[in-house]
């Protein structure tokens, strides 16, 4: 995974640390995991980009892209008016929605999230069973994969737009483009592999294929069962990774030639 491309967005600053440091509260309501407090929602999202806001609105105007336009020009005024109108459509109270994997990671691994249901605080074992119900049959595998990626410093977001489990970022989606799409498969046929590889290559992303290895007969009623699951991981060498390898080889050859010339001059 050292060959993955980390492309930073123009004009964006690096985010703060990837882990929230304040303890927050969430509730399970209607099958969703919600952080009802607006300040806690902002804190969790700002430190690691966990969860998502419904009806989320993002500022699309980057004045650094308009260097020839002065602040008092009419075009800037129209842009700011449009930006204000767009912001006014945001809901008054922002609520952060977490996936079962995100809630498990923040509660079990980071210990910064307390989850309640029907006004009753859930223990870790109770939360685990509830998240298994919400996450479905593949929850254990997805959680183990999510935890592995987070613990290795990646910012992890949903990969649904690309047909995979996760997209990973070196930084955050605000400051960087995704480096790779992570697909969880026990068996992938050639046509599917080529399709995923081509799609992600066109978007300058690598394809990482992960196979979770769950021991037969494993008791998954306890959150500690995740420690028994292993991951087999392989990275598809996409076109931009090949170019990266060619660049490395080219630099090595040039360095070798310079060393030969230096020795000849001596």
TrEMBL record:
> Which residue numbers delimit the tRNA intron endonuclease catalytic domain?
139-211
The EC number(s) this enzyme carries: 4.6.1.16
> What are the GO MF terms of this UniProt record?
nucleic acid binding; tRNA-intron lyase activity
Identify the domain of life.
Answer: Eukaryota
Q: Catalytic activity annotated for this protein?
A: pretRNA = a 3'-half-tRNA molecule with a 5'-OH end + a 5'-half-tRNA molecule with a 2',3'-cyclic phosphate end + an intron with a 2',3'-cyclic phosphate and a 5'-hydroxyl terminus
Pfam families cross-referenced by the UniProt entry: tRNA_int_endo (PF01974), tRNA_int_endo_N (PF02778)
The residue ranges of the tRNA intron endonuclease N-terminal domain are 30-128
Q: Which GO terms describe its biological process?
A: tRNA-type intron splice site recognition and cleavage
What GO cellular component term, any one, is given? Answer: tRNA-intron endonuclease complex
**Per the similarity annotation, which family is this?**
Belongs to the tRNA-intron endonuclease family.
**What's this protein's name?**
tRNA-intron lyase
Q: Which organism is it from?
A: Haemonchus contortus
């Amino acid at each position: 995974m050292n060959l993955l491309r980390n492309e930073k967005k123009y004009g964006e600053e690096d985010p703060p640390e990837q882990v929230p440091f304040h303890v927050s509260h969430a509730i399970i309501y209607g099958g969703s995991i919600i952080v009802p407090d607006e300040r806690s929602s902002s804190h969790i999202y700002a430190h690691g980009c966990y969860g998502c806001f419904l009806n989320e609105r993002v500022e699309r105007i980057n004045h650094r892209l308009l260097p020839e336009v002065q602040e008092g020009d009419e075009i800037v005024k129209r842009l700011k008016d449009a930006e204000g109108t767009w912001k006014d459509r945001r809901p008054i109270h922002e609520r952060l929605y977490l996936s079962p994997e995100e809630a498990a990671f923040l509660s079990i691994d980071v210990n910064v999230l307390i989850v309640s249901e029907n006004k009753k605080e859930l223990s870790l074992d109770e939360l685990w069973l509830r998240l298994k119900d919400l996450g479905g049959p593949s929850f254990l595998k997805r959680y183990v994969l999510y935890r592995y990626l987070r613990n290795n410093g990646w910012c992890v977001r949903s990969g649904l737009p690309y047909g995979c489990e996760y997209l990973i970022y070196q930084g955050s989606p605000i400051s960087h483009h995704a480096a790779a799409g992570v697909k969880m498969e026990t068996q992938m046929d050639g046509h599917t592999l080529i399709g995923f590889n081509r799609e992600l290559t066109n978007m300058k992303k690598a394809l990482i294929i992960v196979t979770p290895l769950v021991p037969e007969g494993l008791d998954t009623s306890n959150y500690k069962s995740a420690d028994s699951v292993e991951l087999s991981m392989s990275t598809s060498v996409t076109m931009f990774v090949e170019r990266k390898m060619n660049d490395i080889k080219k630099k090595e050859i040039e360095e070798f030639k310079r060393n030969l010339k230096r020795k000849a001059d001596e």
